[in-house]
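Exercise 3.2. Students should predict the tertiary structure of the chain below and write it as structure tokens, then compare their answer with the key that follows.

Predict this chain's 3D structure.
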Amino acid sequence: MQTEEPFSKQIEDWLRSDRPKTLGELGNVFGEKSFAVAIVLLMFLPALPLPTGGITHVFEAITVLVAGEMVLGLRTIWVPARWRDRELGKGIVNKAVPFVVRRIRWFERFSRRRGARLFEQRWFLRLLGLVVIALAVAAAFAPPFSGLDTIPAMGAVVIALGIILEDVAIMGIGFAIGAAGIALLLTLGAVVVRLIRGLF
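Answer key:
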């Protein structure tokens, strides 16, 4: 019996192929899992503790669009033509995607197909889409230069990896990270509000 190739190998094969490296082609190659792959690629940069000059807000906005399509129950990614057919860029293809592949490979070492049937349920994927939207919005509204956007963004990345690997345990880790990030944002936000009220 032939086993399915690891997902990290599938992405590497796509990278090495002559096929266009666009969001549209991502949908053609990976089907319904292209949503999760796109979320990982889009949110990995906000998940890094690096100054990005606000470019992460663009990725977070596209993530909200992609996750919104999960909520609507679409089976392939739809984006405006100028985004769909635009090459991902050498920086993403040569650096970001290999970085993501290494992380997927690391998770694959410990992953098992736990609760795989859940990922076949439309209601469950729609629920995960709502969670990803919440995490992307939380990352976008984090105070600039605080580094607080990295935690909810990391939660979204790990949840997407759970979808790719069909493992509810990994997905649960993503939930925990994301929830911790949102709780930290709300706690620090309340502290800032109290400090401002104290000044006046």
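Discussion points: The first helix runs from residue 7 to 16. The chain has nine helices and no strands.
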